[in-house]
Amino acid sequence: MRQIRIILGGIISLISYFGWIFILTAASFIFYSEGEVIFGSEVVKSTITINPIYNWLMAGLFPVFFFASQYILCNNFAEYEEKIYFLRDTKITLMGFSLWLVVIMGTFLFQMNIDYDMNLGGGYLTILIIYSKFHIPSPH
Which regions of the chain does DSSP assign to beta strands (E)? Predict the structure, then answer.
């Protein structure tokens, strides 16, 4: 049952993550787009996709979605302790995500360029460091 719940939680987290990407992409095309005429056809392109903050908002929330979906799926009384652990893991990954978001905002305000791979690598490394610092293993 536990393996099925983990697989189902992964599927739910992927669906919610792609929903988040869809919403963020739609918002970027609604608010941050410009039209350009190429060979007689108008092409609309988003101008925010080169922004490191936007890139981190797109890619950085997947661990949060994963732990949140696992938390939502733990609803039995027997899984209460495990539900508490998934809630704690969700909070820890959200702390790491938020900390790296503040770092990226600071570098963006000082107009420092950060490569896309460096942005994502640094963000996931920050989440991993905070997770290893605050994570207490379960007694199972």
Answer: 33-38, 41-46
